[in-house]
TrEMBL record:
Pfam families for this protein: LRR_8, NB-ARC, TIR, WHD_ROQ1
Domain TIR residues, every copy: 16-184
Provenance organism: Pyrus ussuriensis x Pyrus communis
Record bears the keyword Repeat: yes
Keyword annotations: Hydrolase, Leucine-rich repeat, NAD, Repeat
EC number(s) on file: 3.2.2.6
Protein name, per record: ADP-ribosyl cyclase/cyclic ADP-ribose hydrolase
Gene Ontology terms describing biological process: defense response; signal transduction
A molecular-function term among this protein's GO annotations: ADP binding
Amino acid sequence: MAAKSSRDSSSSTYRCSYHAFLSFRGQDTRKGFTDHLCRALELAGIHTFRDDDEIKRGENIESELEKAIQESQVSIIVFSKDYASSRWCLNELLKIVERRNTDRRHVVLPVFYDVDPSDVRKQSGSFVEAFARHEERFSTEEMDKVELWRRALRDVASLGGMVLGDRYEGQFIQDIVGEIRNRVDHAALDVAPFAVGMDNRVRRLNMWLQDGSNDVGLAVICGMGGIGKSTIAKAAYNRNYDRFQGGSFLADIRESSEQPNGFALLQRKLLSDIQKGKAKKVYNMDEGTIMIKQAVGYKKVLIVLDDVSNRDQLNAILGMREWLHPGSKIIVTTRHEHLLNAHDVFEKFMVRELNEYESLELFSWHAFRQSHPEEGYKELSRHVVQHCGGLPLALQVLGSSLSGKSVEVWQSALQKLDVIPNDKIQKVLRISFDSLQDDHDKNLFLHIASFFTGKTMDYTITILDNLEFCTRIGIENLVDRCLLKMEWGWNRLVMHQSVRNMAMAIIREESPHDPGKRSRVLQKDASNILRKLSGTENIKGLMLNLASKTTFVGSDEKRCHVEDYDGNCSRRRRLGFFSWKPISFSSTNSASASNEIDFKSEAFRRMNNLEILILNNVNIRGSYEEFSKNLVCLSWRGFQLKSIPENFCLENLVVLDMRNSSLQHVWNGTRVIPRLKILNFSHSHGLSTIPDFSGLYNLERLILKHCINLVEVHESIGHLEKLVVLNLKGCKNLMKLPILRSIQDLILSGCSKLEMKKLNLVSAKSWYSVWSWVSPRKNTELSSFSLASLPRSLTSLSLDCCNISEIPTALTMLSSLEYLNLYGNPITSLPESMNNLVKLRTLNVSGCRNLTTLAELPRSLTSLRLACCNISEIPSALTMLSSLEYLSLHKNPITSLPESMNNLVKLQTLEVSGCRNLTMLPELPRSVTQLYGLGCTSLKRITNSPRSPDLDYGSSSIVVDPRLWYCGKLVDFGTLLDTLALDSYLSYLFDLEPKGGIEVQGNCCESLGVQGTFSCCILSIFVHGSKIPEGFNYRSMGNTVFSMIVPSHLNLKIVGLNACVLYARQSNRSLEVPRGHDHHSLELRNETKGLKWKWRVWRKVGWKLMNEDMLWLSRWIMGNNELECGEEVCFEIIDEQDGFLTKEIGVQFVYEQRNKDKEDVPSSSEDATTRTRVPGGVETGVQCIHSCDKKVISTVMCAAEYYFCNSGRIDLPRGSTAVGCRLSDF
């Protein structure tokens, strides 16, 4: 994109031959003010290029001046009374403005010497005569040059600058020198090249730095090594340094503090940066602390403390936070998530991995010096990117190392990476491991990396606590150092692949050439040890997976570390960084394969300290007496024997997992395994009965999923007082269950032959849920099943697809019930006593196709799912559910909704998609933020509540499913999208006269009144016209990307902007576009703050004069500090309207007066508008546009989708506006 280079360039340093470029009118100031100023700048060490318009002008001189402007950090423009008389000065000014517009780092400082800033901005006073003479000299064709001069004067004069006024020249010059010193003393930090995704990652940090707070702010940037914490901090520091009176970036604090007198050296660096090189030598830390306290209390500073590893470093370098001047900001980067205490007030920014697309782009820049892989390397590049797992350091290192290499070298390098990780990457990651305080945490880390990545926290703690680890606190320490993460919502342990590779490298160091002497052995090493009988007593854990039941795409079996979820298979999540797909299990239990390898049991003879043994489809021949007596965890999937041998010592086991085994009976008699807590025989198809488990008196979880031949469960499980989970999902031949005394979670889905009448639950102590997922029980009749024995404490009950035709009254007596799922049952009605369930929050009766009427429901409901029923009329009683937040009426034969729908004051989501008979939506409550209506083919009218004149329109906008516009008969949107009559508003906004009417394309030919649309703080209007109006004086011809710098005006603040896009009609192109492509988008980006808005218009309404060019006018209303003077703004047309080409983009900024008493306010003809209130409550800008083709005004009904930083659509919460949305993480 055209804008990319300018954005990315801000991340790196550039050549500057001069600190400052001085532009002035020689006849006015050469021998006086300018000479003194230049001398003062040089004495201050500010290298200045001095322009003098008395020197001979020629092509070489002009070229040198342009080069000097390009190679200067700051341009100082001295405006004097006759400045505008010099065409040379004015052309020089154009060059300076052009430099500033293309590089936001270039600073322009206007100096007003005996001239009023308003005379420069308005070209009044002495500037009037100068421009009159220019206009006399120039021909009509050359008048564009004069207009460029005027615009440049307006823009630069609007920057504020420094005014001499009544001050003495000497003091005025010193003030200028001080200002320039503050600007040029800061050398931009070198940021890593190809900073892909940097704008998105630094966006929220920039907003925090620019929040204008007077508090001393503290932010902590956390993340694993190599994730880009320092790069983000540098980018934010470079972008925001000029907003502070001083700053310091202290890099590598962890390493520097370990050097002799390291803290004192860091303190001296901090003092030197803040005091502009005037700091005295610091001899010891205590003395430095006192000096820092004195220095930071008098100016607002920005301080970055990079790579802090403990709290002592923070205190030693900076001292107390309270010492700093109000408005100061401190940024700390660290690998330790909990570096600061919970009671500390600070902002935390967690740095996430790059996504797949960003990773591929960053890797490509380093490997190919372009944004995408070269032909022939695409698949190899994807493998490398997958291996790196979004870690920027790994992508950079591997990309650079493979650059210019052949395909064969790439393939060899990938094979090596699987065995030996890259040393440079490992060195960075190893720092976090070495920072662990003791061997306990280091060994815990190596155990988790080897055997428990992807496991749940509870499962891991259950095992490792029995290996004398303090697991919970240890895991917290690993998470704190970003060596481990918890998968949100699933409580699983997730480890980055690069970190796991580092753990394997550390284990390899224990014995580089003899795996049998290592503490943990996995995969190939384990296979070799078993084959060569080379195991030793050093081995504490062994894992060998010969035939995984899960295939990882683009990876090998060494990366498989996923534990099957014991519940609903549809809820499984991908762990790690590899895509996966499940493979169905064989109908038989034979795990043998053509490549099966048999090992001898004597291979385990010397492994006396083996505690964790994980085997998958491994055959062991010989005596099982050889196995270690210290086994705590035995996971042997695909176990080949028909029963567990008596001489197999199990007495110390805490977990026994023999899924997919060939077991026909577990063991003979009764075995005592006192420590066993988890027992899993799932998918053991040969099992028909479960033996006496009375010797497993500490058993907590018994998992028997898909034991398809299991007929009976031994009654002893009813006496296991600690058994809380019993999963019998898919046991389709199970006939009966014993009395269950302590079960909390019972899963019976697919138990189609279970005699439910005999299920005795009387003694259950505290049931939380009875789950019934996935499989319909076609042969089960529950109409006679007595629910009277269900405990009143039950909170969740799921009876989906259970062939229930009538809800027993006893069910409505479960006074604690909060969740009830009756999906897919042939019920015809709900009992009148349903409202007895006073705590019920979620009711799902979707798929109950015989359900035609609704009873009175409990008012506690927050979610009601009625999809795919046969309800033709919604009772008004439903609208009395004042707590309801979600309502689904999907695919019901309803024709209308009750007029009292607005009584549902908490309703947020309404789904009426597929309601083909629905003709009208009534007034919806203001709380609704999501409306889904795909396939409402009869829908003609949407009504929404009228807005109050004092209501902020953006705060009540509804995010509408864009597919709603495919409802072919829909012609009346009411006020859903705040459609505005242009007769009342258009002249206030753009001075355009509305004429005529419009026609709707599609199934309806009704004519609508002239309207525009206003939603989420954006007004959108389409006008037929052939040129951009004159008031839009920031323009770009023929480009779909357009960047500019926001100008400033004295006593005015920016409140929004107007954008105008001119589309040229392509006469040879049809305007009929396929469904799904009938939209075009305009994206606005605040590059300085990292904000992004995307406005998408869906084409539903056409235009009468289809062969003419078209103008798209839009007004963007901004929130506080969303857009400020001096910031870089970029417009981009994302999807061009089919049949039209972008011809020109124009922008003008909208301001409001800061202080009504000030007289120096731009007139309506200038590039500014003043804010006013017009009828209806919409805040608009008023300005005069001198010329425009006043053609037919047309309207588009448009749905809005807002995108922030490629994060997808944001559903606006109640009470927020689109421009106010914020993301919480990078």
